[in-house]
Amino acid sequence: MDYSPLFISLKVAIIATIITFVLGLLAARLVVSMKHGKTLLDCIFSLPLVLPPTVVGFFLLLIFGRNSIIGDFLIKIGCSVVFDIKGAVISSVVVSFPLMYRTVRGAFEQVDASYIYAARTLGMREWTIFRKIIIPLSYPGILAATVLSFARALGEFGATIMLAGNIPGRTQTISVAIYTAVQGGNRELAYKWTMIIMAISFVSIFLMNYFTKITNRRGRV
Fold first, then answer.
1. pLDDT tens track for 103-118
2. Cβ(180)–Cβ(72) under 8 Å?
3. Domain that holds residue 198
4. Tens of pLDDT, residues 180-198
5. Separation of alpha carbons 46 and 37, rounded Å
6. Domain holding 110: CATH number?
7. What's the chain's Rg over C-alpha atoms?
8. How many domains does the chain have?
């Protein structure tokens, strides 16, 4: 049994989760601190959550394909995204970002505002307040969001196969490998990959529920 889809999936999911972690924190902080235009920006950030993955993949193809300005520029500098593992990472980032953003935003909004007001009274800068007060008080929610984003990135299929393709040993993730095995009539291989990804997803959901429970307890205190 070739385990390359597992290693590719883990690599893509880990890299995508790191990127999503940073972008999600910044996006959540931006929206929470906004006074105007919050609803519009929230809709934009959350859009990939409700769009079919194939639609997301199609838009990514339009953005990074060789006929686009961005795609043509990337090809000229030798950085191809289509049919490359970088495309799988980008796809995973886009589909998992809304989960990270919305969960972290909810955690930020549960932080007692009196701590923030007190810090401002003491002359602390906004970035210092965010780094030393908001993030530490929100860390269970941030951890839950990170685990959820990792699980979503690990199981991504539609956008990945549209942008990165199905190249064994290069872009074939577990989800794509399951699809290929079923199409090829190899149900035994499909069962094996299904059990592996179900085990990883179960552990991820367990951790997410654990961190969410901690967050809810903090919110009631």
1. 999 989 888 888 888 8
2. no
3. 4-220
4. 999 999 999 999 999 999 9
5. 14
6. 1.10.3720.10
7. 20
8. 1
